[in-house]
Structures are given as C-alpha cells and as structure tokens.
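Side project, low priority. Logging it here so it doesn't get lost.
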Amino acid sequence: MTFTHHFLNGNFAPVRNEHDFTNLSVVGALPDALAGALYRVGPNPQFDPRDAFYHWFAGDGMVHAFYIGNGKVAYRNRWMRTPKWQLENQAGKALFGTFGNPATSDPAAIGRSTGTANTNIVSHAGRLFALEESHQPFEFDPLTLESKGYQSFGGVISSRFTAHPKPDPETGELHFFAYSVGGPGTTEMQYGILDRECRVARLDAFHAPYASMVHDFVATTAHLVFPITPLTSSMDRAMKGKPLFAWEEERAVHIGVLPKGAEISAMRWLDTDPCHVFHFMNAWESDGKITVYAMQSEMAPGMPYADGRPGEPGKSAARLSRWTIDLSSLRGKVERTVIDDVPAEFPRIDERYAGRYNRYGWYICHADGNVRSEAEDVLYGTLTCHDFTTARRQRYSVPEGDVLSEPVFAPRNQAADEGDGWIMMTAWRAAEQRSDLLVFNATDIATGPIAMVRLPCRIPFGFHGAWIPA
C-alpha cells in the first residue's frame, strides 16, 4: 500500500534505526556548567500502518537522549517497548489500526493494550517516565533507555494518566489528572498526587460538565485549574459514523478551580466563551486572582466539527494569551487577552518557577504572523523569549524550511536566578536531511546559538522533552 499522508513523509516519517553516537561534532562551545541529559520523545511507528488513515499522534514512542558534560555530547535513541510494540515486533508487522481502531486491527490485537508512550518525558522521585494520556506512565532507564514498563504505583493507577502532570517545587509532589476514566465519551475525571517517593498520596474522582479531551491543566501554589473545552468525545456520535473527537462550537468553556488540599466537593466551576488550549505555559496567583498563560486558539487544531466538516486552519492557530480568573467575585470572572499575535505553540518556563510568577517564557512560533495549512501549522521556525516584566520579546529564526522543536530550559545551577541558564532544542535541517541540537543563552536568544551539536542522523518531529541535570 502507498501512503501519501503528510504525517508519514518528510521529517514526519519514522526512523527505523536505534543509534549510539559518542563525541558528536560541536560548533561553538558548550558551557562547562551544562552537564546532564536532554530527553525528547515523539511518535515513530515501528511498521507502516495497516490503514490508509494515519495520524501523527498514533505512532510508537521513541525517546531521543543527549548526554552532555565536559563540553562533549553523546546521543542515543530507543523505542519504548510497550506491550503494543512488543506484540507487533514479534509479528513483524503492524497489528493495530490507527488509535487501536478495531475495524482495521488484526484479530490478534483486539482487546490488547494500545499504549504508545509517545507524548512527554517527566522525571519524578529519581525515576523517568514517557507519558501519553490514555495509559499509565511508562518507565525507562535514564542512561540505557531500557524499557521498564507501565507503572501502577502499587496497583493504584489502573488506566489513564495525563501527559502533563505538574510539579510542586516546594513540596516535591507531582499533581496529575485523567479524563474519560470510564472510557471514551464519559465525563468521569480523576485528580491525584504522587508524593516525593512516587507513592499515590491522593486519588479522587469527579465529573466534568461534559466529556472533553483535556490534554493539559495548571497548578499554582494554592489552586488547581482544570479546563473543559468544546473538544468533545462522544461514542454515540462515533457509532453514527461521525468523529469520536470533534469541536462543538456552541459549547462554553468550563474552568474547574480546586483549592489545593480541599475535598473534591470544593471544586468551583466558572464559564467563559468557547476557545481551546492544548498547552499552558504556567499559572500563578495574587490578590484573589489567578493569572494563566495559555496557548489559546478559537478551535482545536487538527480536529473536525461534530458534523464531520473539517476544521478551519484560520481558527486553529494558537497564540500566547493571558487568562485572569477573579475568584473574589460572586460567580467568578474570567478575562482573556492575546499578548503575542503570532501563531505559536510548545510554551516552556524555568521549571523551578512552576506555579509561581515567572518573568520569562519560551515558545516556538511563525514570526511572520501567517497561518499555515494543517500540514505546516505545527512546523515552527522561530524561537521566542518573552519577558513578562518588561513585555520585551526576542526572536531567533532558522533558515526557511528548517524546523525547531519545543525549547527546554536548563538552569546554570539550582541556586541561579530565574532564566540564568540555557535553552536547548533540536533543529531539522531540511536541505541536509538531518538534525542539530542548538544551545542558547536563555535570555539572549536573538544573538543565536552559542553551540550547535551536529547529528549524522535525523530526529523526526516530536512533542515534548525534559532536562535532567547531572
């Protein structure tokens, strides 16, 4: 079968080799204080898909690791050997339809785990996990990248776990949630906490106002904020031949606000006009107001309307926005303001300031302000550093056709001031059909990378990453 879908071509196409490279070529100089490992993860299907329909989100997870120290860099990549990966590896071919679609799956795959571990990397309590929101956390070894399997944390986490849990820098806890716990189209959600020893210290259930795909949430020092947007799921709709996940433009956004430590019955729901957010940058609060930095779009990118009509790229482009949630008013009030009017995504901060006021934020964008097609919308060529104190923005762009990954911040040391450190990201070099690792001074990105690590291979377009200091 010939596949023409753009998510299987160019640098979306999978790499089928696992590499170990040492002492990679470095242009410029790596800082002496930069020592640790940068991990990235993304979809990388082991075999060509069974059905002509394929979506980027559905590929097997592959982790890419850069080990940095003493001015040198080594690179290693490995598939996450999930039960799905192992079953297909033994068969020597794809067995699962896209997203486990039973209509296009081999009978041997029916009822088996469809987990891919392909979305985010999170470190907690000295352990490292590849996450994807429809399954449990998948643990792997930080050095060898050897798969350790899905983790239930003492048999407590039995199904879903968000790809974007939130750390609390003060307590050392990790806050997490899950949506559609009862299956696709259900409103039941869970909220929980992993303590410093990676034990489940809390797990509560609650119901969302409607069944929504909830990819991300935010936490401040005192509150948790759960966004329910009109990207809905419906089994009834799917049984009628319409999309399982779709945009219902007539629905309002509901924002659940829960005080930390409070019973789940204390959840307060606030309403605002329809919009969508896949990724939040951060949130903090002062004087009874919660400030949230979000990549907000008019509708969910890449998703159809509920009647099956395709989505509109002009409405799907996300932009850095500020939400101000006033908890002091009787019903609660939400104000939303766009603060950078260019299509952008993958926002990150200095993680030591998670849940607290952050001066700096980094993200990738289309600096010309133009909205791309669905195929090009996620391929950004400009890195931005936004200073929320001065409202100053710096940008750095790669040559036309090259593509940047999500930026990841590494502090100079744990006692360094906010933003005192480096931004690292990969760059796809279209003309050379390979990738580089770029290192910037975090608050001086406009001058360009201070070091560029040249890879002899390419890293397919992926999602998120993490820095683990030595």
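Brief comment: Residues 81 and 147 are 6 Å apart (CA to CA).
Revisit when time allows.
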